[in-house]
Specification:
- There is one protein chain.
- With about 325 residues, this protein is an alpha+beta fold.
- It has nine helices and nine strands.
- The strands form three sheets. A four-stranded mixed β-sheet has the order 1-3-4-7.
- It is globular, with a radius of gyration of 21 Å.
C-alpha cells in the first residue's frame, strides 16, 4: 500500500505540532478543526458526500501518524466506521462528529469510544430477522462515561430497542464493520509498538552505565532485539490482513482467518514489547514525565478492544481445527476453498 510521501510527512507534521502545544487528550477541538481544514476528518469518504475520496492506504498512514505521536482522537471511529456505515446505507453525512457501536440483544454496548463526546452515535443491532442501523443523538441514549487504561473515553451505551427504527442492512455489512474495527486497532497497536522500539533504541544508545552505552550490554541487546522482532511480526501480520481485505473489497472468504492471525500476533507482541521496553528503560520509564507510558498503555488497552487476545486466539484455533493438518497450508496461503 503505497502512499505519497509528502502526504505522510504532512500528516506527521500536524500531529507533531499538536503535541508540542498540548498534552495527551488535550486540545482535541482545535486539532479536529485543523484536520477538517486539511480534509483528513473524512479521508475515505466519497467526494460526492463531502469526503476526500482517499482510500484505506491513506487512512492507515493517518492512524499510524496519530498513534506514533501519542495523539488521542476518534479518527477511525468517525471516518472508517460510523461515516462508512452511513454512506453504505445511503444516508447523508454532515460535519457532525460520530462514533459507532454494535448493540447486544439487550440494547447495550460496553466501552464505546468517545460516545459521550460525539455529536451522533451510529447504532447497529439485530431485530430478530436482520441487522438495522440508526444514527441517534447521544442525549437519546443512556451513556455512562468511562475510560480505558490509556485514558481515552470508553463509554457504556444503552438504547431502547423497542423505540429504535432504522435502515435494514445486509449481514455482510455488519461482518465488515467487525473486521474493520478489529483491523483498526491492530494498525494502531503496530504504530505504538514501532514507537516503543524507537524510544528503546534511543534510550539504550544515549544512556550509559559503567562507562558504556546500555546498547553495548548483551542482555539489553537481546531485550531490544525481541522488541524489534515482535513489532515486525505484528506489522507483517496486520499488513497481510489489510492486503487481503483491500484485494477482495473486504469480502474474501479467508479474511476472518487473516484478521484473527493479525489480532493474535499483535496481542502477544504487545506483551513482549511492553515488558521489555520497561525493563530497558528501568525506573525512568515508569514516570509520568517520560513518554514511554503514552505508548505502552495504549498498546495494552487497544489490543483488548474489539475482541480480547484470548478471543482471537480461540478464533484462530477454531480455523486451524476445522481445516486440519492437510488444509492448513492452503488456509495460510489463502488458496483454500
Amino acid at each position: 500500500m503505497s502512499v505519497d510521501t509528502e502526504l505522510v510527512e504532512m500528516m506527521s507534521a500536524v500531529f507533531a505540532a499538536h503535541r508540542e502545544q498540548y498534552a495527551p487528550g488535550e486540545g482535541t477541538a482545535e486539532l479536529w478543526g485543523r484536520l477538517g481544514d486539511l480534509g483528513l476528518i473524512r479521508l475515505t469518504g466519497s467526494e460526492e458526500s463531502g469526503g476526500s475520496g482517499a482510500g484505506w492506504a491513506e487512512a492507515v498512514e493517518l492512524l499510524r501518524a496519530a498513534a506514533w505521536h501519542g495523539v488521542r482522537i476518534p479518527l477511525a471511529e468517525h471516518d472508517l466506521l460510523a461515516c462508512w456505515l452511513l454512506q453504505t446505507a445511503g444516508h447523508a453525512v454532515d460535519d457532525a462528529r460520530r462514533t459507532a457501536c454494535l448493540l447486544d440483544s439487550d440494547g447495550a454496548a460496553r466501552g464505546v469510544p468517545w460516545a459521550a463526546d460525539s455529536d451522533r452515535v451510529v447504532l447497529l443491532w439485530h431485530d430478530g430477522t436482520g441487522y438495522r442501523m440508526a444514527e441517534v443523538d447521544p442525549a437519546a441514549l443512556t451513556v455512562s462515561s468511562g475510560h480505558n487504561n490509556a485514558g481515552e473515553p470508553r463509554d457504556d451505551v444503552r438504547a431502547s430497542l423497542a423505540d429504535l427504527t432504522g435502515t435494514p442492512l445486509p449481514d455482510n455489512v455488519v461482518e465488515q464493520f467487525v473486521r474493520r474495527a478489529a483491523l483498526v486497532r491492530a494498525v494502531q497497536v503496530c504504530a505504538v509498538l514501532d514507537r516503543i522500539l524507537a524510544l528503546s533504541v534511543a534510550h539504550t544508545t544515549e544512556r550509559t552505565q559503567f562507562g558504556r552505552p546500555l546498547a553495548k550490554f548483551q542482555a539489553v541487546q537481546n531485550l531490544v532485539a525481541d522488541i524489534a522482532a515482535e513489532s515486525a511480526l505484528a506489522r507483517a501480520a496486520t499488513d497481510g490482513a489489510l492486503a487481503e481485505a483491500l484485494r477482495s473489497d473486504w469480502n474474501s472468504p479467508h479474511l476472518d482467518f487473516f484478521v484473527a492471525v493479525a489480532r493474535s500476533c499483535v496481542g502477544h507482541a504487545a506483551s513482549v514489547v511492553v515488558r521489555n521496553a520497561h525493563q530497558v528503560h528501568g525506573a525512568i520509564g515508569t514516570t509520568r514525565e517520560h513518554r514511554l507510558h503514552e505508548f505502552t498503555m495504549p498498546a495494552l488497552s487497544w489490543r483488548s478492544e474489539y475482541g480480547s487476545v484470548a478471543h482471537w486466539d480461540d478464533k484462530l484455533t477454531e480455523y486451524v481445527t476445522q481445516v486440519g493438518s492437510d488444509g492448513l497450508w492452503a488456509l495460510v496461503t489463502a488458496t483454500a476453498d
